[in-house]
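COMPLEX REQUEST
Ligand: guanosine-5'-diphosphate
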Amino acid sequence: MSEAAAEAAADGQAGPEISVIVPCYNEVGNVGPLVAALERALAGRRWEVIFVDDNSPDGTTEAVRALARENARVRGLCRVGRRGLSSAVIEGALSSSAQIVAVMDGDMQHDESRLGALVDAVRSGVCDVAVGSRHVEGGDNSGLANAWRHALSDGGIKLAQMLLPVKLGDPMSGFFALRQETFARIAPHLSGTGFKILVDLLLSSPHPLRVQEIACGFRARLAGESKLDALVMLQFVALLLDKLCRGWLPLRFVAFALVGLVGIGVNLLVMQCARALGFDFPVAQGIGTVVAMIINFQLDNNLTYRDRRLRGVRCVWGLLLFMLVCSVGALANVGVADMVYHQSREFNEASVAGAVVAVVWNYAMSSTIVWRR
Ligand SMILES: Nc1nc2c(ncn2[C@@H]2O[C@H](COP(=O)(O)OP(=O)(O)O)[C@@H](O)[C@H]2O)c(=O)[nH]1
Ligand SMILES: [Mg+2]
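STATUS: Structure written out below.
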């Protein structure tokens, strides 16, 4: 230890040893009780809590700031225009300079009294990751809201266990601890999508991580509502697929192309309806195209680019840009198809070549212009 570091330690000015990373969205009623609970659970240790909040509309951001003004152990990281539990945890953990990071939910469902045991297991070196587990002896999952949530959780666990390189009873746990340097080393390989950051870490680590499970209870949420929905479940399947394909299959592109296929169906359907109503083909096709673009935009905004979702005026502006991008894509489609047809005289080959160029163009422009970071 340097002289300056020894002096800071003696003055009680040394940085925290533990950062508790808490992703939170609309948790205004929970952040205060959580800080109070951490004060009790981590008494005698050097710790901080980092709330990573995605600009919650319910006042969570302000509540965290008010707590931080009075308590130097509280830090807040507010992300604007972003959503996502896993990506929030990644940014929080990378903002930490502590030796150990622990991750827990911001709704009081995790039993904070087990935090010390998680941290000690990592510090002792018996494991790389200590996981608060509801599925080892002494663990308890009674806080899950209903039978449907139990079935979902159990199904997810079975699915994850098929891919994991380590034996783990509760891979769906969001309560765990590891060294900050271990997290930082794996961070460049993480998918960062969805809710299951532990699964992401275990599947992304270049070297298998040694895991220790520590029995934990799981309480009912204190205040507010769960943010888990059907799309989060889809993201979990996408995460597993992404890891199974070792990242060579860009899942966002696959989602974009599938949405594009839906668009073709919508275009055909609306065009046929318009024809049935007596419109000429060019008008009917024009109506079908516009409706398909609007529906594609909505689907991409809520699925493909969910983490960068546009709202309000930005959504209207995004739709106009998207239509412009797709119109240029359609022109490129016809141009390329025409060029290929002149060389090969093959309708199908020419048509597929045009469609591929258009979908790649639409995707590249959508990612960089419409839903830019
Ligand atoms: N920053 C951030 N936190 C989130 C997001 N979605 C969920 N969370 C937080 O992640 C934790 C777990 O989410 P929760 O909705 O309780 O999931 P459940 O326990 O599976 O029902 C809670 O603290 C949420 O506030 C998000 O999009 N961004
Ligand atoms: Mg919860």
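REMARKS: The chain has a mean pLDDT of 91. The two ends are 41 Å apart (CA to CA).
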